[in-house]
Amino acid sequence: MEVVIVPDAKAGGELIAGAVADLIGRKPEALIGVITGSTPLPIYQALAERVRAGSVDVSKARFAQLDEYVGLPADHPESYRSVLRRECLEPLGVGLDAFIGPDGTATDVQAAADSYDRALVEAGGADLQLLGIGTDGHIGFNEPCSSLASRTRIKTLTEQTRVDNARFFGGDIDAVPHHVLTQGIGTILSARHLVLLATGEQKADAVAAAVEGPVAAVCPGSALQLHPHVTVVVDEAAASKLKLAGYFRHAYDNKPEWQGI
Ligand code: PGA
Questions:
Q1: Distance between CA 132 and CA 140 in Å, rounded?
Q2: What is the rounded CA–CA span in Å between residue 12 and residue 141?
Q3: If we measure between CA atoms, which residue out of 82, 74, 180, 199 comes closest to residue 131?
Q4: Distance CA 33, CA 105 (A)
Q5: CA 182 to chain CA mean position, Å
Q6: What angle do CA 81, 187, 85 make, to 5 degrees?
Q7: Is 108 a catalytic residue?
Q8: Which of 26, 91, 142, 256 registers the highest number of CB atoms within 10 A of its CB?
Q9: Which phi and psi (to 5°) does residue 154 adopt?
Q10: Residues with CB under 6 A from ligand 1
Q11: Cβ(81)–Cβ(35) under 8 Å?
């Protein structure tokens, strides 16, 4: 995998927005896997600026959701469908007709998961899947010891993840749902290019385990080592526990210009 160490979150957002824009330039109907959380906001801001400047046309692009809370009404401000609409789609001028996601309100949760997994396959699979990483190493909501072959399904959140996410629910951990629907690790690995952004010191251990640790379900992010095209973009703080940081910098500094990420 390629690890790119950037000075700050804004630079990471610019780099990744550039890769998304290049992809859409080559393939206007590309399917982009999009994510929630604090980390991706600089990506969406940088991409929206490019849309406003007219340097990328996203009118044919398609967008797919990574994960969703179970049981939150779809119009709840913290349902991931609402969050993506507010923070990603609307700033890009994209409507829900170009968006697919799992139904977190379904009574038959497994049927909703299976149906979303099929919808992703029928849509041709994600051309580029954005990812964050949890402090516990999760990707999507695949918590530690998720099957590395898993498809979209229900998961139970760890207490750590619910503590981390309580900030979106007014600091009230009891308001954070226990259950989620998430693309499985196998589903995520089906995307053609995986781009993970991690920023801040609180992600340093998870990044080191995912990038330099053994491939092991206890750190779901380590499954990225099995994929042929992965770009991990980290700021200095999130890179601070990487033993090979010097090599990663050297490789990126000497990268052929035509290569892109
Ligand atoms: P964050 O979440 O971007 O809000 O830190 C990342 C994640 O849990 O995957």
A1: 7
A2: 22
A3: 199
A4: 21
A5: 11
A6: 15
A7: no
A8: 142
A9: -80, 145
A10: 37-39, 132-134
A11: no
The upper half-sphere exposure of residue 62, i.e. CA atoms within 13 Å in the direction of its Cβ, equals 16
Q: What's the token pair of residue 193?
A: 């290019």
Among residues 229, 46, 35, 45, which one has the least CA distance to residue 138? 35
For ligand 1, the distance from its centroid to the CA atom of residue 64, given in whole angstroms, is 17
Among residues 14, 127, 136, 235, the one annotated as catalytic is: 136
Please state, in angstroms and rounded to a whole number, the distance separating the CA atoms of residues 64 and 116.
10
Phi, psi of 60 (to 5 degrees): -105, -5
Name all domains of the chain by residue range, CATH numbers in brackets: 2-259 (3.40.50.1360)
> Per-residue pLDDT tens for 41-81?
999 999 999 999 999 999 999 999 999 999 999 889 999 99
* Active-site position among 68, 143, 164, 235: 143
β-strand pairing of 153-156 with 179-182? antiparallel
